[in-house]
Amino acid sequence: MNGKQLKNSILQWAIQGKLVPQDPNDEPASVLLERIRQEKERLIKEKKIKRDKNASIIYRGEDNSYYEKFLATGEVKCIDEEIPFEIPRGWEWCRLCHVTEVARGGSPRPIKDYITESPFGINWIKIGDTEKGGKFIFSTKERIKPEGMSKSRFVHKGDFLLTNSMSFGRPYITQVEGCIHDGWLVISLIGGAYCQDFLYYLLSSNFAYAQFSNKVAGAVVQNLNSDKVANSLFPIPPKTEQKRIVQKIESILPKVHQYEELSNELASINIAIHSKLKKSILQEAIQGKLVPQIKEEGTAEELLVDIRTEKGRLVKEGKLKKSALNDSTIFKGDDNKYYERINGQVIEIELPFEYPNNWAILRLKDICQLTDGKKKLGKGVCLDAKYLRGKSSATIIEKGRFVLTGDNIILVDGENSGEVFTVPQDGYMGSTFKQLWISSVMWKPYVLAFILFYKAELRNSKRGAAIPHLNKELFYNLTIGIPPLAEQQRIAYQINKLSQLIK
């Protein structure tokens, strides 16, 4: 359980009457609600407020079912389906509108014509004036002209503001007076049914959010309807118990925050350990230390001939560029130093690792090439990074660079340049990708494990200021140890086995 989950559990216990013990000497919430109804009746007679046509009383019948009686008509209906949990004796269920006023903000338009720098302007309270995880709104960055008030809604200190846009249902208590736009709902307390702090925690609970979620409207931008929020059903504890609940919550929350910090620190450590362990496995693999060498599997020398033959054929077929044939030969001299022969010239080189004697050593460009893929017309899925990561739905396009299920594509533009994906279905690769050709002579999972080992280095060596892109020179010139094919398969199997164990 993380810190957020723990906090949500505490708030749920609180609103169910399970956080503090009940005191039989507390004045029941029913008495408080009756006083509020009598006060409303007096104000109606004095014509200070209008009668609520939907005013109701919620009570529990002798059959233990919950009923709602509408005062205007006398109609009674069973609302058992709306009651989510049992509440203690002395508590009551009530519609939010019977103990608060709920209204939506408004925006004078065009808003830019009403923004002013005058000190006599009216505070213009925006969602951007809130602090992440904050409870109060203390100030505003902008003001509007006084004439904009008639097209907006004025709120007072102590009013609750409820976000009413993309991140709907987040409550704040305003400590400034001002006007609110239509991205807010304002909730004003009536009759003192709730302590301010208790109502804040009630509105912050998952129970409140779940109710609001079921009431949002709008397909793309989800908005809370003020009438539906007002009609939401909430528990009301005795006033004195509300205060005890608040005290208990606020004595616990610092410990919850401390727990969350420690949990986050532990999670970071676990992620770091997992990442380092995975990197260590990959490093052992590409050095030839993950599995033993088996003499009967021979050497990798025979693979080199097959790699060059395949590349020559693909160049003739126009599937690879001629530059793919510019191979180099890396070998170990009698002095145990490594040398590279390029166009007849031999130079001494430094390699990051020592490799087993039966391995060959190549540049990555000798077995991998970045290609554009085949152009094709016709409807197909756009295989961009968000879709491949499962963070967006499929987009259909009618032309592009076509790739097949099982092909590999690599990000060459953006922050994550160097990340490789295996294509899950036929489609067109996104504009930030290149197709990654890997020699069929090689065991593909082994090569992909090698590229994964250098993922961070490739990401950190990107080029370009505005749009960073893959450092292709670095990518192509990485040195890769080539084991015999059977050993490549054993290495890939062991990597997968160990990766499953450390998840």
Would you give an account of this structure?
- By secondary structure, the protein is α+β, with helices and mostly antiparallel strands.
- The chain has a domain of about 210 residues: Alpha-Beta Complex (Adenine-n6-DNA-methyltransferase TaqI, Chain A, domain 2).
- Helix content is about 30%, strand content about 25%.
- A five-stranded mixed sheet has the order 5-14-11-12-8. Strands 6-9-7-13-10 form a five-stranded mixed sheet, with no helix packed on it.
- α1 runs antiparallel to α6, α6 packs across α9 and α6 packs antiparallel against α12.
- The radius of gyration is 34 Å and the shape is elongated.
- The two termini are about 20 Å apart.
- The mean pLDDT is about 90.
Helix content class = 25-40%
Distance between the termini: 18 Å
| Mean residue pLDDT | 90
Flag low-confidence runs.
Answer: none
Give the spatial strand order of the biggest sheet: 5-14-11-12-8
Quaternary structure classification: single chain
What is the name of the CATH superfamily of the domain at 295-501?
Answer: DNA methylase specificity domains
Number of strands: 27
Beta content: 15-25%
Shape: elongated
Largest sheet entry: 5 strands, mixed
How does CATH name the architecture of the domain at 295-501? Alpha-Beta Complex
Name the CATH class of the domain at 295-501: Alpha Beta
